[in-house]
Amino acid sequence: xxxxxxxxxxxxxxxxxxxxxxxxxxxxxxxxxxxxxxxxxxxxxxxxxxxxxxxxxxxxxxxxxxxxxxxxxxxxxxxxxxxxxxxxxxxxxxxxxxxxxxxxxxxxxxxxxxxxxxxxxxxxxxxxxxxxxxxxxxxxxxxxxxxxxxxxxxxxxxxxxxxxxxxxxxxxxxxxxxxxxxxxxxxxxxxxxxxxxxxxxxxxxxxxx
Length: 209
Prior knowledge:
Elements: E1 16-17, E2 20-21, E3 24-27, E4 30-33, H1 36-43, E5 46-49, H2 61-71, H3 77-90, H4 106-119, E6 124-128, H5 136-152, E7 156-159, H6 163-169, E8 173-177, E9 180-185, H7 187-190, H8 197-208
Parallel strand pairs: 5-6, 6-7
Antiparallel strand pairs: 1-2, 3-4, 8-9
C-alpha cells in the first residue's frame, strides 16, 4: 500500500495511476522517482488512511483536516473550514472539532483520519488496515463510515482482515500470500470456495461462523 503512494520505493515493477504510468527509474536495488512533479500532482488525487491514524498530535481535529487542503492544495481557509466541519459532521465528530487526537478514542481518531482524507477530494482512497489498531468494540464505527463511502461509489483500495466487510462491500478481492497474488476475483465467486486451496483455508473460520 505504501508503495502505491510511493511512501516506500518498490524494488521492481510498474505503477500506473489513472491510466498514467509513474516515471520510476532504477537506483541500486530499488526504483526511484524520476519525475517529482508528476508524483506530487498524482498524490493530490490519492488520499491515504493509515493503520495508526497519523494525526498531528499538536493540532486539533479541525486543524488536522484543514492543513493539507490549505497548504498543499492552496485552497481558501474559509472554504476549507466549512468543508472540514461538514465532513466531521458526516463521520459523527463535529462536537470534537476542537479536541486534540490524544483526547479521542481510537475509533474517533480513525474516523477523523478518514474525514481528513475526504476533505482532500481524492479520486481514490487508500486504507492501510484501518481497523487493526482498534479495540474490537471500536471496529464497527469505522467500518460503518467506510461502508457508507462504498455505497456512494467511492473508489477505495483497502487492506483488511475483516472478511465479512470485504465480502459485503468490495467489488473485487485480491488475496496475497507471501507477496504474490494467490486468488483474485469477485467476492461472490471467491467466497463460494474452490478458487484456491490457500484462500479456502484462510476463510474457513469465517464461513463456519
